[in-house]
Automatic annotation (TrEMBL):
Recorded coiled-coil stretches: none
GO cellular component: plasma membrane
Ranges where the Glycosyltransferase 2-like domain occurs: 5-147
Superkingdom classification of source: Bacteria
Main location: membrane
Record keyword Transferase present: yes
One function term, GO molecular function aspect: CDP-glycerol glycerophosphotransferase activity
Protein name: CDP-glycerol:poly(Glycerophosphate) glycerophosphotransferase
Length: 743
């Protein structure tokens, strides 16, 4: 029997579940079991749970056939738990490192019925807020245990299940279950504390309570917030049923005050109670105030909180609402003043400020007042570098399937010649560019459009992305400042909020985008449009591409395509083309392609590995990259998304990662490409050469790894991804996600 049984209910937490499970299983204490309850989650959470259960015997997976909700799902886990203590942890939260040994020591030495642990709120912008523990208990409680009647102020701690470890025999003997509905923690936590003979308090942050920007119940408006009244009724019923054992006379006033505080907190949160429900919600507070008011009186808080209590007692909704409006106006005014101080007082535009760019921006804002063009779609890729990637594939499919849509590309002036014949375009920064941006109905890009672009009503923004993320992206980069130098996260969030659709190449990408880019967009799990060509290309087309690159029949082509190191400008991994060619033999051919970011650094494209050998070709300036994938027999890369695209072809891939430890530390990774590689792995250049010389590149082990990789990352790339996007976005057809869902 384990000391601790973790019960983890899982529903729509795919972006955070791995972090949660790793925090439970990766501690320096393993006398635990994890009961993971899949509450019929519609995302990739079940797939994640299956992987963990297959790798770690401590994980037991329970699958429910229908969604029952958080409380009943916890009950299912409780019924299967065997540990001495049960800890209900939510799937989007995570434990602090090394907290379990300390918790285990406290449990074993004091044997509490309930052990309360501290937490911090971790907000989506990576800031933290401490709990109320130090306010509720200014003086350390220490290791002593107590009853709630001896320390009634403990009621002021957060009423969640996840900040409590409960002795299982005590809980089972109590017969307490989680009730259905929202706010289920209320009718669990308070009865547990009321009934416990031995309550312990560990003054140590053990739980990171995630404050999600999107998708959290506390940020979801609706009438289900009315469930809070039924949950508090259960608390007072429990109190009435056990008056002598728990000290009802002393604790009734304390719980009453906490109940009113909770109701007012829910009502005061503008993201929970819709305006048309607010008066009715207030009436319910008034009714419960009269119903549960202690017969011998109760404490009324000081200040504004006390005023709220008195207005509730008197049933004065109009006064309450009016005072709330005044308070909100004051808060808004103070925010405006603070924002103005941060910006500085703006001066009137003088002649020096009236630049050509400012004139065009003014025209852009004027164009925003004109009607949206219902037939216009604007496309862009890689910061206006040309016709490429997913937007290009979507554009081509739209010309065929939605000819009524007029597609216009945005390109830099120096990249106009790269456009295919017949593609309409505007040059970035021109009057036509601003006019087109302002009036387009659809905006399709594989990066974000500039900050000044406005999201107009009725327009649709499609974020296609440009790769499966190995490296940490978006908000997750806050933890890796070297790789996020100069990134304005507030501006990033404003750009994300413009998205209507996010294109996902695989389930893993969906999970990572959800946490890196939290917003209200719709994810289209359709595969990558740019990979359609890798599926549909014929043998004759491939032969023509190889010939165009100077590849002779019988030559084995190796494409080396390392990624960019934002934290190390100018860095090139150790690589000697001649030594690799020597290992390949006389039939070997090497294509070397640097990352497109390198033209930002130096103003020109350079691979960094010059060679006079005719068998080495610099293809850094070659477009599109899909041609190179089709022409190559083997891909060598490091942390680049190229491996996910190339795996569609089911050809050998070598991961060459000579700086993995440093890259992981400085840039952060979502995936260890050496542990979950699509083929052979080398961490030194000598190892890379040996992989070719020894035949490891083509070994059965490398092939098996590639098949597992393809099964995880390439199942949606069936040649019809672009068509699925066009039918959903431009034709508004209810096509499904994934392969086979077209037409």
């Amino acid at each position: 029997m384990a000391l601790i049984s973790f019960v983890v209910p899982v529903h729509r937490v795919q972006g955070y579940l791995r972090e949660c499970l790793d925090s439970l299983l990766g501690q320096a204490f393993d006398d635990v079991e994890v009961i993971a309850v899949d509450d019929c989650s519609p995302d990739a959470s079940p797939e994640i749970l299956t992987g963990y259960a297959g790798r770690d015997r401590r994980v037991r997976l329970v699958r429910l056939t229908g969604n029952v909700g958080l409380g009943p799902a916890r009950n299912v886990g409780l019924d299967r738990a065997t540990g001495e203590y049960v800890w209900f942890v939510d799937g989007d939260d995570w434990l602090a490192p090394d907290c379990l040994p300390v918790i285990a020591e406290r449990l074993r030495t004091t044997r509490p019925d309930v052990l309360l642990v501290d937490h911090v709120r971790v907000h989506w912008d990576d800031t933290t807020t401490r709990s109320a523990l130090r306010d509720v208990h200014p003086e350390p409680v220490g290791a002593e245990t107590f009853r709630l009647r001896d320390r009634p102020e403990t009621v002021g701690l957060l009423h969640t299940a996840w900040n409590k470890l409960v002795r299982r025999e005590f809980l089972v003997g109590l017969g307490l279950r989680f009730e259905p509905g929202w706010y289920e923690d209320v009718s669990f936590s308070y009865p547990v504390l009321l009934a416990a003979e031995r309550i312990g308090l560990l003054d140590r942050v053990c739980v990171n309570y995630r404050q999600r920007r999107a998708g959290a119940i506390t940020r979801t408006p609706g009438d289900r917030h009315l469930d809070v009244f039924a949950q508090w009724e259960r608390v007072f019923r429990f109190l009435a049923d056990h008056p002598a054992a728990i000290g009802a006379d002393e604790l009734h006033p304390v719980l009453f005050e906490r109940m009113v505080w909770h109701y007012l907190t829910v009502l005061g949160n503008g993201e929970r109670i819709a305006p048309h429900l607010r008066a009715a919600f207030f009436d319910r507070i008034v009714a419960d105030h009269a119903r549960w008011r202690p017969p011998d009186g109760h404490r009324v808080p000081d200040g504004v909180e006390g005023l709220k209590h008195r207005l509730v007692a008197a049933g004065r909704w109009r006064t309450f609402s009016a005072l709330r409006g005044v308070h909100q106006a004051g808060v808004a005014a103070r925010r405006t003043v603070r924002a103005a101080r941060r910006r500085g007082t703006p001066a009137l535009w003088g002649a020096a400020r009236l630049t050509w760019d400012a004139v065009l921006r003014a025209e852009y804002h004027a164009e925003l007042r004109r009607p949206v063009d219902p037939t216009l779609a604007v496309y862009a890729a890689y910061w206006y570098r040309g016709y490429a990637c997913n937007p290009a594939a979507i554009h081509a499919a739209a010309r065929r399937l939605a000819p009524h849509v007029r597609g216009v590309w945005v390109v830099r002036r120096d990249r106009v010649d790269a456009l295919p014949p017949g593609v309409e375009y505007v040059v970035a920064g021109t009057r036509a560019y601003f006019r087109t941006l302002a009036r387009a109905r659809w905006l399709v890009n594989n990066v974000n459009f500039p900050d000044y672009v406005r999201k107009r009503p009725g327009t649709v923004h499609v974020q296609t992305h440009h790769g499966t993320p190995v490296k940490v992206m978006g908000l997750d980069q806050r933890r890796y400042p070297l790789g996020a130098s100069g990134l304005d996260f507030d501006a990033l969030l404003r750009r994300i909020d413009r998205w209507d659709y996010s294109i996902s190449s695989n389930s893993f990408s969906t999970q990572m985008w959800e946490r890196a880019y939290p917003a209200a967009y719709t994810t289209l799990e359709v595969g990558y449009p740019r990979n359609d060509r890798l599926v549909t290309a014929t043998a004759d087309e491939i032969a023509e591409l190889r010939a165009g690159l100077g590849v002779r029949p019988g030559e084995r082509v190796v494409l080396y395509a390392p990624t960019h190191r934002e934290h190390l400008p100018g860095y090139r991994p150790p690589f000697d083309p001649h030594r690799l060619l020597d290992a390949l033999g006389p039939a070997g051919r090497l294509l070397v392609r640097s990352h497109y970011f390198h033209d930002r650094e130096s103003g020109e494209v350079t691979p960094g590995w010059p060679s006079a050998d005719p068998r080495v070709t610099d293809v850094s300036g070659y477009h599109p990259v899909e041609d190179l994938y089709l022409a190559a027999d083997v891909l060598v890369t490091d942390y680049s998304s190229a491996m996910f695209d190339y795996a569609v072809l089911d050809r050998p891939i070598v991961v060459y990662a000579p700086d993995l430890a440093a890259y992981r530390l400085a840039r952060g990774v979502y995936l260890d490409v050496t542990e979950e590689s699509p083929g052979a792995v080398a961490t030194t250049f000598a190892g890379l050469v040996d992989a070719f010389r020894s035949g490891a590149v083509d070994s059965a082990a490398a092939t098996a790894r590639r098949q597992r990789f393809r099964a995880r990352f390439c199942v949606w790339d069936d040649g019809h991804a672009a068509e699925r996007v066009v039918r959903r976005v431009f034709l508004d057809e209810p096509v499904g996600d994934g392969p086979g869902d077209v037409g």
